[in-house]
Write a structure and sequence with these properties.
Layout (H helix, E strand, L loop, with lengths): L2 H13 L6 H15 L11 H21 L8 H10 L1 H18 L6 H7 L1 H17 L5 H13 L2 E2 L4 E2 L4 E3 L5 E2 L4 E2 L4 E3 L3 E3 L15 E2 L4 E2 L4 E3 L4 E2 L4 E2 L4 E2 L8 E2 L10 H4 L1
Length: 270
């Protein structure tokens, strides 16, 4: 490779504003989670003043991260950072509903501490909830970095723009995909491998509702695929494993398919 190529790379680097590594951005969110749930880190604060100082430090870090990622050039970034931390009580209350849903919905969960400390579903939900708040403040880039970090750690891919209600329960979780314009109600339970996706990936449909709506108290079992912006899963419905849906269903429905299973006797085959 000639000098011209490296000169091109060098010029590109000079023209690019330095942005903190994704690990630093994810680390900020982890510190927010640890502030709310010291059960995750094992660290406790020695005084109320120390805890408040940590919150103030994290608020300052958020402001710095927004500045370095070019966030909200035409809005008040200091106000956004302050509003985010003023909203911590509401975030804490919302996450507590998710903990309760997971604990009460999973017979294997012995304590809420176990949910907070070990469950990948709760980890992914925490990052999604933080990212969604920033998304609603119209902060670019940071929300996607946060949810993609959770995706890389858990296999759970939730777009920060998706709208998800209270008491959200992800069980196991690996392979879950929740698209940008998905709307999920309260008390929804979702197992591994579920996709809430779009019928088309045409770029011209950006900004259009492309992903399903899932109403309250719906259970979606492993491997189910639900596609389309006009697809509405009615409340109190059950979607069976490996179901493929591209149209809405009424409330209180059960959807399943019946695969053909053949069992042979190995001795007879011989």
């Amino acid at each position: 490779m000639g000098t011209a190529f490296y000169q091109h790379l060098f010029n590109k680097q000079k023209a690019t504003e330095p942005i903190p590594a994704n690990s630093i951005i994810a680390g900020w969110a982890l510190k927010v989670i640890h502030l709310l749930y010291p059960e995750q880190s094992g660290h406790t604060f020695s005084s109320l003043e120390e805890l408040q100082q940590e919150a103030e430090k994290l608020e300052s870090e958020l402001y710095s991260l927004m500045k370095t990622t070019g966030a909200c050039r035409h809005c008040n970034m200091e106000r956004i950072a302050a509003d985010f931390f003023n909203g911590l009580p509401a975030l804490f209350q919302l996450l507590n509903t998710d903990i309760q849903a997971i604990f009460e919905g999973d017979p294997a969960a012995v304590t809420e501490f176990e949910v907070i400390r070990t469950y990948p579903g709760f980890y992914a939900i925490c990052f999604y909830r933080i990212a969604h708040i920033l998304w609603e403040f119209e902060v670019p880039l940071l929300p996607r970095i946060l949810t993609e970090h959770a995706h890389s750690q858990t296999g759970i891919d939730i777009h920060p723009a998706a709208r998800i209600g209270q008491y959200f329960h992800i069980d196991h979780g690996s392979g879950i995909v929740i698209g940008e314009t998905s709307v999920i109600g309260n008390h929804v339970k979702m197992y591994q491998g579920v996709t809430l996706g779009a019928l088309s990936v045409n770029k011209s449909l950006a900004g259009v509702k492309r992903h399903p709506t899932v109403e309250d108290r719906v259970v979606i079992y492993a491997g189910a695929t639900v596609l389309g912006g006009e697809t509405v899963i009615g409340h109190d419905s059950i979607i069976g494993g490996n179901v493929w849906l591209t149209h809405g269903i009424p409330a209180e429905s059960t959807v399943y398919h019946t695969p053909t299973i053949t069992v042979t006797n190995n001795e007879k085959v011989k």
